[in-house]
Amino acid sequence: MANEIKLWHLQNINLFKKLKKPVLERINKNSKMTAIPGKQVIYFNDDPSRTIYFLKKGKVKLVRIAEDGQEMIMDIVNAGEPFGENALFDEERRGDIAVSMDDCLLCAIDKDRFEEIARNSPGLNIGLVKFVGFRLRKFRHRLEMLTFKDARQRVMELIKELSEQYGRRVGNELLIRNFLTHEEMGELTGLKRQTVSTILNELKKEGVVDFNRKHIILPDPEKFFKLSK
Q: Which of 54, 97, 171, 179 could form a disulfide with 107 if both were Cys (CB 3.0 to 4.6 A apart)?
């Protein structure tokens, strides 16, 4: 029964959804499902880089430490996404810190076992390469945003990024699944929570953005994207 539950969880990982059952069963056989409480370090910077993780439930933040000791959140991993994938690209030691933001359920697999499975599954290989490329572009974009953009531009750039990954059209509007608190948006943009709230309220008054507990809403997406340039 536990094995069937783990297989069901694996089938709901974005990277695995189009895989054939024999490939999924190999991943299932070689992975371990673990429940992690909130606010717990999953791995530290400079830990051995031997494991790939796939998040089924919860949120995980990936943090890098600058030379001056300042923390920088590079990404927030959501359910259905992998992390720690740099272990596949000759990373001997972790270059970031992974911390659970709330109660998480994740599957872990040794990188050598995963590489062996991926070599015999072109679909998995292609999906992984696309995902890694996407995350690298996101990291580069976030560094540029923190370096060159003012507070308002940072919030709008983050919303734009979220719209590309999680947005869906409903009539003329664009709905973005809202899984970030204002504090978490602040951590991703290098701003205080109060600053993020102020900017969002200003954008709402201008009719550019609306939001509720479930969604960030772009009433006129074209207008928003034009203003966010």
A: 54
Euclidean distance between CA atoms 104 and 115, whole angstroms: 25
pTM: 0.81
Q: 217: closest CA among 195, 200, 192, 193?
A: 200
End-to-end CA distance of the chain: 51
Cα radius of gyration rounded to whole Å, the chain: 19
Identify the H or E element spanning 159: helix 151-166
Pair 84, 51: CB distance under 8 Å: yes
For residue 66, the one-letter residue type is A
From 105, 112, 51, 44, select the one nearest 83 (Cα to Cα).
Answer: 51
Which two tokens mark 209? 């953005």
Q: Pairing between strand 210-211 and 51-57?
A: unpaired
* Longest CA–CA separation in the chain, Å: 54
Amino acid identity of 186? G
pLDDT in tens, the chain (229 residues): 445 555 555 667 788 888 888 888 898 889 999 999 999 999 999 999 999 999 999 999 999 887 777 778 888 998 889 999 999 887 899 999 999 999 999 999 999 999 999 888 888 888 888 888 888 888 888 888 888 999 999 999 999 989 988 899 999 999 998 888 899 899 899 899 999 999 999 999 999 999 988 899 999 999 999 888 7
Q: Which residue intervals of the chain are DSSP H helices?
A: 2-11, 21-30, 111-119, 122-148, 151-166, 182-189, 193-205, 221-227
φ/ψ of residue 38, rounded to 5? -65, 155
